[in-house]
Design a protein that fits this description.
This protein has nine helices and no strands. It is an all-alpha fold.
């Protein structure tokens, strides 16, 4: 079977998406020295892990998810600025820019009546109805906006150590909880075949 025809397991995809972030946390915790040194080392690990994830996805599955690709570009840019200018500010604002970019893409898809989230997660939810994709896209778009606002509030009003702790024990668990919270809606709009048969058409379907 050719790599491009091999669907990616949702759990593998999740690992590729959050693996680099975990590498950042682990290195930051284990690296000795003052906070700025720890952040610099963690940033390097973040950049390397992201590069490995992108290469592995391309070689193994023949494609790289849009979210991972966007994250990779931003990690390269903001991580590079962090190391070059020796300032953790850039790596702190990277999540805000990332969340804002993804939210903008999702909202554009809703306005254009083409739920863009389906392009990323279509293989994970093959039975989801058009209404289900629209609702899921809307939910994640607003959630990413909230994550961006939260990131700005935390990094601008707390220490670097607290911000890193928030990323590990705040935003990451919140994302997982939010994903689980969407399951009942997914069951009503596609994952449950009987419910999907009764799913009313969306206005955008005509």
């Amino acid at each position: 079977m050719k790599p491009e025809s091999r669907p990616m397991n949702p759990f593998v995809k999740l690992g590729l998406d959050i693996g680099p972030l975990i590498a950042f946390f682990v290195v930051n915790m284990a690296w000795p020295g003052p906070a700025i040194v720890k952040v610099m080392a963690a940033t390097v690990a973040f950049m390397i892990a992201t590069g490995i994830a992108i290469v592995w996805a391309k070689l193994r599955h023949g494609s790289v998810s849009a979210m991972l690709l966007v994250s990779g570009v931003m990690v390269l840019v903001f991580g590079g600025l962090t190391l070059w200018l020796h300032s953790e500010t850039f790596i702190k604002i990277k999540p805000t820019v990332y969340y804002g970019t993804i939210a903008s893409i999702l909202f554009y898809g809703l306005i254009a009546k083409k739920p863009t989230l389906e392009l990323v997660l279509g293989q994970a939810y093959p039975g989801l109805t058009p209404r289900g994709w629209t609702l899921l896209t809307r939910n994640w778009a607003f959630f990413f906006v909230l994550l961006g606002i939260a990131n700005e509030l935390v990094w601008r009003n707390s220490s670097t150590s607290f911000w890193i702790g928030y990323k590990l024990w705040g935003s990451l668990p919140a994302t997982l909880v939010f994903a689980v919270a969407n399951v009942p809606m997914l069951m009503r709009h596609g994952l449950n075949a009987e419910a999907a048969k009764q799913d009313p058409p969306l206005p955008l379907d005509g």
